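The material for today's practical consists of a large collection of protein records. A record pairs a protein's sequence with a compact description of its fold. Instead of coordinates, the fold is spelled out as a row of discrete tokens. We will come back to this pairing of sequence and fold again and again. Here is such a record, shown just as it appears in the course material.
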Amino acid sequence: MKKFIALLAGIALSTSGWAKTTEKAVLTHYADLAHAMYQDSLITAQALHKAVKQLAAQPTEANLNHAKVAWKAARVPYQQTEAYRFGNAIVDDWEGKVNAWPLDEGLIDYVDGSYGSESDENPYYTANIVANEKLMIGGQSIDTGNITKALLSDTLHEIDEVESNVATGYHAIEFLLWGQDLNGTQAGAGKRPASDFSNENCTGGHCDRRVAYLLATTELLVDELNWITSQWAKGGDARKALMDGDSKASIGTILTGLGSLSYGELAGERMKLGVMLHDPEEEHDCFSDNTHWSHYYDAMGIKNVYTGRYTRVSGETLSGPSVSSLVAKKDAKVDQALRDQIETTLAKMQVLVDSAEKDNVAYDQLIAEGNTAGNAKVMDAVNALVAQTKGIESAVATLGLNPIEFEGSDSLDAPHKV
């Protein structure tokens, strides 16, 4: 009886919370969570930069491994911020500077002969910035003698408007730390040696320039995350764009981000497409074999934003007014259904994590042709994301918002085109 009374009391408190929840309060907390997530992304990127500087000073295998661990740690908060993409224009216009993928790694550094020497779509396919102090492409001369942040971000990143010319961000750093993963859909990640960063015992050639590139792009990542963090601080442009507009439209912005990440981006472009093509190049963190965690934390970011709850890298938990509260106030069943769908998605993502971390079967192995059981594990997560997106659509309808068109993917909407 006491437990039943306590349960009723909990429901009463929850209902009272729904009644007090306003759209403005939800938007304020949403912006506060964004600021915290990007601040954590900045903090972990600063730790990565410190580890990279240590590697540059002492290029040992231990220091290289430390930098790799720091890179993986930096991915944890950043991936959770992806729930702020798509709806918030300022984020989507910016994110390609830090998380663009896939990349043509031959733009950056040496590659194996199996990579090929040219691409019909990309004249910079094997430009090899590290090895060349001047690039001559199509009669255009580019001075790359001094590898600086400005050269990478302003001149070389997505040069010729080719999206795979990724010169900056997490994945450029990932490639520099791990090197190519030449294992296809077999076990193993990239195996770049620490001596690739050693001037005294240099392997791979041009080690001083490789170090310069790694330092510049890591420092640039810190700069970019510092900028986006400031956009979500009080008075920042991202916060103002959200708070100064129509409240209902801004709530729609939140749900646009959740639905688009859930459906077109994560379920489609990052997951189902890879299963359809059985191509390890479609793996999000393809050099480090860290994709299972990136997908998991993308899904966690959706939960964070919908429920208004985020656990910081410090261990502190932030919670407050949420979209979930607004939906529950209108229709508790719709809210609970979406919460359940989100938990189902996370459970399916945990299966992918356990495969890699416990069974030593990485994501690129799961999507391999002929791996029926592995393909099924990935598709279970895809199907959970699709069902979750339908729950987000129900939340949109429950709140009486204008219909929202989420990002799509041919892999989901028109598989015959893939």
